[in-house]
Amino acid sequence: MSLNRREFLKFGGTTAAGVAIGARGIDVAPVEAAATSLKIKEAKVAHSVCPYCAVGCGQLVYAKDGKIIDIEGDPDTPHTLGRLCPKGAATIQLSNNPLRPTKALYRAPGSDRWEEKPLDWMYTELVKRYYDTREKHFIEKEKGKDGRDVTVNRLEAIASLGSACIDNEEAYLLSKFNRTYGIVYHEHQARV
Ligand code: SF4
Asked: Please, which residues have CB within 8 angstroms of residue 96's CB and are 6 or more apart in sequence?
């Protein structure tokens, strides 16, 4: 259907009015509550904490037949009263996500196309390249201002970028891992 601007505004206004009448004329709260309770009926609930950031919002995790079926904010959490930010509200995708890639995408040096590779191949390749790069570029000592050797144990040839998809514990381990290997360039796009 193609609409000109005037028709579009008229159409939008009518739709908005319809929604407003619907929302005011019919109390959908019991229906929504029933739909939610049906979904989690007979599910086991566990109290948990959102893994993503230090706000530490409480969550209720519902599981049925060994599978997580719903995660929502825990209303007993004093500082959030059951609210979650959009990231926390999507926590279920850590467990159930049909869109999660299951193969690695690899573009060889000089190539203009991506190839699908098995994850095991990618892990082996990462370890190999990581090891080779560290062996080649690790700086054990460098000259200080006074000309004497100073132990620095530094690796400048690898940089590490954290992800908003990793949780607090993973970010902690990544940071420890980087320090252990001497990496000095490590960053996280979600830090505050
Ligand atoms: S719900 Fe949002 S604000 Fe709360 S802990 Fe998770 S990421 Fe942090």
From this structure: 67, 68
Q: Which of 48, 49, 57 has most ligand 1 atoms within 8 Å of CB, for mutation?
A: 57
What string of DSSP letters covers the chain? ----HHHHHHHHHHHHHHHHHHHHHS--HHHHHHHHHHHHTT-EEEEEE-SSSTT--EEEEEEETTEEEEEEE-TT-TTTTT---HHHHTGGGGT--TT---SEEE--TT-SS-EEE-HHHHHHHHHHHHHHHHHHH-EEEEE-TTS-EEEEEEEEEEEEEE-TTS-HHHHHHHHHHHHHHTEEEEEETT--
User: What is the pTM (predicted TM-score) of this model?
Assistant: 0.58
Instruction: Indicate which atom in ligand 1 lies nearest the CA of residue 83.
Output: 1
Residues with CB under 6 A from ligand 1: 50, 52-53, 55-57, 84-85, 87-88
Q: Which atom of ligand 1 is nearest to the CA of 55?
A: 5
Domains of the chain: 41-100 (2.20.25.90), 105-188 (no CATH)
The per-residue pLDDT for range 83-123, each reduced to its tens digit, is: 999 999 999 998 899 888 899 999 999 999 999 999 999 99
Q: Give the atom of ligand 1 at the shortest distance from the alpha carbon of 84.
A: 1
pLDDT of amino acid 1? 55
